Amino acid sequence: MASEIKQVIINVSAKDFIVKCGGDFANYLETDIDLLSGGSKKIELKHFVDAFVKKSYENYILQKEIKKLVKTINEELPKVNT
To answer: What is the pTM of this model?
Structure first.
């Protein structure tokens, strides 16, 4: 069953941006926005950019870890199958 599409409004420097996304991710995004904005749902541009850079860095680290894990699995898998 497909997730329902929700609209999440992000207010950055007094301008509303509407993001349409699946229900589960919408809930996650709204929680993230609440944490970043202190519950006001309004974010200054500098804080928004800082948050974007932080999330990008976290994603970068996760991607490195995933690649490392996949490499380890690929190296170990032939040993298990022999």
So the answer is: 0.75
